[in-house]
Amino acid sequence: MATHGIVLFAHGARDVRWREPFERLADKLRAARTSGGEAGPVILAFLELMEPDLPAAVEELVSGGCDVVTVVPVFFGQGGHVRQDLPAIVERCRELHPSVEIRCAVAVGEDESVLDAVAAYCLRQV
Amino acid sequence: MATHGIVLFAHGARDVRWREPFERLADKLRAARTSGGEAGPVILAFLELMEPDLPAAVEELVSGGCDVVTVVPVFFGQGGHVRQDLPAIVERCRELHPSVEIRCAVAVGEDESVLDAVAAYCLRQV
User: Fold this and answer.
1) Residues of chain B contacting residue A7, judged by C-beta atoms under 8 Å apart
2) What pLDDT was estimated at residue A46?
3) Which of A8, A38, A46, A76 should be substituted to probe chain B, the one whose Cβ sees the most B Cβ atoms within 10 Å?
4) Structural domain count of chain B
5) What was the ipTM of the complex prediction?
6) Structural domain of B12
7) In this predicted structure, which of A35-44, A62-71, A89-98 has the lowest mean pLDDT?
8) What is the pLDDT of residues B88-97, one digit of tens each?
9) What is the DSSP string of A35-74?
10) At the top level of its lineage, which domain of life is listed (chains A, B) (predicted)?
């Protein structure tokens, strides 16, 4: 059976505090995958200003035995970073690891249930 | 009774496509507030690269009769934009509109149920 790794791909920032929700998200996913009987790892990667970058994250997953990697952009919108920068980096990763299947999901903010959760949060603020 | 406006504060991007989830989010909130019997408006504002900026958005809400404005940062993390840039802009808005109560929420990505929805989305990708 294929070992399927997940990379949570985020923008990165100078402020270390910015990283926290992504770490919490990765922890949630690890817990959910473990309780669901899935062994695949979950790691973070950043476009800029934070480590590791996406090629380093993919390298780590491949070294750890993953033969499928899904990159999930933890961005609200499908802007230039997700529509241009990310595909170029993913293409580079594919060239570096031709035997590994590297998939790329749509930005999380495009998902209806994510937007519903954000809307519910906003309504709780007023 | 106070008229309470919501500003969804996002980063902004060069790519117009980036704006779409925020527009969908604003539409969801308008629909929810209308069905909940709340009359207050919901508008977008951007830190950079897109219009309007936060002072212009607050000006619009105040001109429209809002006496309370809640700014919700639609960011994943409490990074420099939310912890430094935003408070400075909000302070400027308060000086411009001293009779209006301007509140500022924590970034949506810090919310547990938002992170749960993002995690569920990620799990559906593998």
Assistant:
1) none
2) 96
3) A76
4) 1
5) 0.94
6) 4-124
7) A35-44
8) 999 999 999 9
9) HTT----EEEEESSSSS--HHHHHHHHHHTT-SEEEEEE-
10) Bacteria
